[in-house]
Amino acid sequence: MIEEKQQIALPGEKLCVLEEFLSGKGTKVSADGVVFATVVGRVKFDRKKREVQVEAIKEPDNIAVGDVVLGEIKELQSKSAVIKIIGKNGRLLKHHRTAVLLTKLGSKESLGHHVSVGDIILAKVTSIISGLINVSIWEPGFGVLQAICDNCGATMTSVKKDKYNVYCPKCRKFDTRKMIIHRGSEKSLSNWLGLAT
Ligand SMILES: [Zn+2]
Question: What domains can you pick out in the chain, each with its CATH number?
Answer without folding.
Answer: 2-56 (2.40.50.100), 68-192 (2.40.50.140)
